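Support reply, case 0932

Customer input (verbatim):
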Amino acid sequence: MMYLSSTTDANTSNKSRSKRSNKTAAAVVLGALIYTSSATIANAAKKAVVESPPALVLPTIPRLALVCIIPTLLGYYKSEYGVSYGYGTAMAASSALILSSIANAAQLPLLPAATTMKNYLSVISLTTSFNNLRALLTSSLPAFHSFALFFYGTRLDLFLLYREVFLARFRAMRERIEERAKKQGSRLKRTPFLVSCAFLYFCMMSPLLITTQMCEGMSMVFRPIGKDLVNILETALRSTVMLSLLGFLLGAMGDINKTIGKAIKGEDALITGGIFRFFRHPNYTGEVIGWVSSCLAGFLAVVLKTVSSTGGGLALWKSMAPYLLLSVMGATGISFVLATATTGLEFRQKEKYGDTDEYKEWIEKSWVGFRMTPKEKADEDSEESESGDN
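Our regenerated output:
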């Protein structure tokens, strides 16, 4: 009996140890599964974070307003600077902020990470920036629109700097404008004018805010035009943004053509060759085309979003209404300024060259562009316009 009892106890003990070992093995297996699953989930999460692009975060309205105001304050130093360097810098800085936001969201930064300025200016860094920009211009319509405005502002600043450094007559013109401004009182009296200029610059930048919000993910790749309304609107929008840059390029060509022509023929020469053969005032005409096209792009972007989305059209137009209103004000304001300058320049040219055969033949074959109703006499300010002297 004692033997049977011992045997039974042994069997029971073995069974207990077997159950414990089975439970231990099961726990080990379960733990391994949990660890593997956790590692898999963690790796998947990390991969998702890496692969999913960051959200587009645009600069705030106060920040954009600030970069339009600060350059314009140069007008306190020299009155003419508020509508020259202030104008160009406000356009370049505001569009650069938006372009940078688009580039970062697309993981194509225009300023790759670098520890020193030397690294930023290295060939590798500059090549990376150029390649990222080139990729953005084809893959993102908002980026292309941003670049058009950035090109305009930067090009204008460089041209103004060149004139001030190398052309004495423009420095003299600036001083004449400054003397007239001083006669009107203290520098603080310029505040209303400078504030209105900064507001105009913000309005001119507003269409870019619309296309950036409405056209995220839309490329600049043209597709065959079909009967589909969305496809037609996309083509029209891409064409309008492209026309904006072409208008600014036309203005740049006019300034270069005029500068070279006067350097060869003399400061008092009438420039009728090159791009001036077709446009009498390519710098003014190009600007009007550029800014009006930019404004139109904003409206087309809202129309496209309304047509391509289901419902919420009225709410979309209400939310975009302030930006659309500002866009119209900007395009109208700058077009009025440029048309007035064109009218003054037309009068001066006729007064100075009207009796020559070259002038008579030129005005018959070239397009005057956009102008106001011709006046009998140009006012004093238009006689010294900042970019259209011929």
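We compared this against your earlier run and they match. Two observations from our side: Residues 2-51 form the longest helix (50 residues). The mean pLDDT is 83. Please reopen the case if you see a mismatch on your end.
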